[in-house]
Amino acid sequence: MPIVVHLDLMLARRKMRSRELAELVGITEQNISLLKSGKVRGVRFDTLEAICRALDCQPGDLLSWAPDEPR
């Protein structure tokens, strides 16, 4: 998938565990794990906002685009 999730990197930079982020955001730790692995098809903007608020970052710090084949 060309969208790469860097949530694990941001958690490490902030010295925060998935469990703590899940509590701050109000979603399950399992959903945080799915986000970290990139196994989700989408994320709600309010969830993304809550993650950015908790990690004090921008959406671009969490997501990047890496095309897997040229067009």
Description of the structure:
- The chain has one domain: 434 Repressor (Amino-terminal Domain), CATH 1.10.260.40.
- It is built from 5 helices and 2 strands, in the order βαααααβ.
- The protein is globular, with a radius of gyration of 12 Å.
- By secondary structure, it is mainly α.
- The model has no long low-confidence stretch (mean pLDDT 93).
- GO terms for molecular function: DNA binding.
- Residues 13-62 form the HTH cro/C1-type domain.
- This is Helix-turn-helix transcriptional regulator.
Task: Offer a concise description of the structure.
This protein is mostly helical. The chain is built from five helices and two strands, in the order E-H-H-H-H-H-E. It has one domain: Orthogonal Bundle (434 Repressor (Amino-terminal Domain)), CATH 1.10.260.40.
For this entry, give a set of tags.
single chain, 71 residues, mainly alpha, 434 Repressor (Amino-terminal Domain), two-stranded antiparallel sheet, 2 strands, globular, Helix-turn-helix transcriptional regulator, Lambda_DNA-bd_dom_sf, DNA binding, Cro/C1-type_HTH
